[in-house]
Inverse folding.
């Protein structure tokens, strides 16, 4: 089975989400840039990001901050999000079972995948980190997805663009492929993915099928 992260892997949404998050933090008086959001929170749950910012700033954010952040992000995604180049090609040629396991809410996954017309490849197999106790880099989400799909973790390949996601796949006993997006804002992105445990790296989704086959020993 192939498990895909959503943001930054299937859809080019990370820059949008980082910009929105930075704007919402600034609205409540916490000066955070999109670059900081990208550096520290790519691949992680919004709830965990909010908790970390509260801890670092020593401030309690408004109770509805998470909801406002979610709504602002969805608004932008509905009009701006695009599919990752060549991802439809990759999904069309991967015949084995597939699912999505994302740190985002299910609603954000659905909006992103419907807007980019990718949802047909996965529905109903969409799994959110809000369904498990701990988000990435903990293995909970990937183990949850494997259990729901009735596949042993050792048989799963995970396609991830964040070090947190790659670390989660390794912790789950799965084989991670690191996706190095052309739009990635992370410095030394490929090196960070390798350090986190990626077994292979790709920068073009057209290489995914052959990479999977190589990892499978086919």
């Amino acid at each position: 089975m192939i498990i895909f992260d959503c943001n930054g892997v299937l859809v080019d949404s990370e820059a949008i989400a980082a910009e929105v998050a930075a704007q919402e933090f600034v609205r409540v008086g916490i000066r955070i840039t999109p670059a900081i959001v990208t550096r520290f929170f790519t691949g992680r749950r919004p709830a965990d990001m909010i908790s970390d910012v509260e801890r670092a700033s020593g401030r309690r954010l408004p109770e509805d901050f998470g909801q406002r952040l979610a709504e602002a992000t969805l608004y932008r995604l509905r009009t701006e999000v695009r599919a990752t180049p060549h991802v439809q090609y990759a999904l069309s040629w991967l015949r084995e079972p597939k699912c999505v396991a994302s740190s985002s809410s299910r609603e954000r996954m659905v909006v992103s995948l419907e807007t980019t017309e990718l949802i047909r490849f996965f529905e109903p197999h969409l799994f959110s980190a809000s369904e498990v106790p701990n988000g990435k880099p903990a293995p909970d989400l990937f183990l949850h997805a494997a259990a729901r799909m009735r596949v042993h973790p050792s048989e799963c390949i995970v396609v991830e663009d964040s070090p947190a996601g790659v670390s989660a796949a390794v912790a789950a006993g799965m084989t991670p492929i690191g996706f190095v997006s052309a739009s990635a804002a992370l410095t030394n992105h490929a090196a960070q993915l390798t350090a986190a445990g990626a077994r292979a790296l790709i920068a073009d989704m057209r290489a995914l099928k052959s990479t999977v086959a190589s990892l499978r020993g086919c």
